[in-house]
Amino acid sequence: MGIFFGSTVALNKVGCGRGCMVYACDSEELLTTMSQEPVILNVYDMYWFNQYTTPVGLGVFHSGVEIYGQEYAYGGHPYPFTGVFNINPRDCNELGEQFRFKESVVVGHTDFTEADVKRIIYELGKEYRGDRYHVMNKNCNNFSSDLVQILCGQDIPSWVNRLAYFSTWVPFLQRCLPGEWLTPCVLQNSISQQRQSSNNSSPSNSLS
């Protein structure tokens, strides 16, 4: 598992298209039948920090969105390509030892196909580049929120992104966080592979 570069096919299923006639129907049963795939938010404790801060109402959490047997998340790095990556759902070993699985929340259901989801992830990856990561307004939980909104039109629980609110009171917080918080292990490995591939394919040894 690793960084998600996906397909270069353009995202097509954004509007309702032919489905508009279906959604205009009054049949709740039909809509329920169409929306079968669960959209699950997996939340992780930054446990060695939260054991001290949770009792006073603060928490630092990482999240990813599980759908069709894969979990998609976002992390920061200094390079101008996507920071979106995928792992096996709830696999803390792929994230790193500082992550501890906390809970799963079924946020809703979607009728997007697996191919649709991959195209959506690819398009979001253009916005969620690694070098655009910001602990307050473009973090892993912001990515999860945007993806969940697209897939099923729901919000993630507000407590999941409490770090963003807290960081407004502590502006230098991002500089204080360990790098592993921003770049999970699986993403670090994928970055190394991507850079090596780019170096091998480019005479100038520059990233494409």
UniProtKB/TrEMBL annotation:
SMART domains attached to this UniProt entry: DUF862 (SM01179)
Origin superkingdom: Eukaryota
UniProt keyword terms in alphabetical order: Hydrolase, Protease
Gene Ontology molecular function: deubiquitinase activity
GO biological process: protein deubiquitination; proteolysis
Gene3D superfamilies the record matches: PPPDE domains
Protein name: PPPDE domain-containing protein
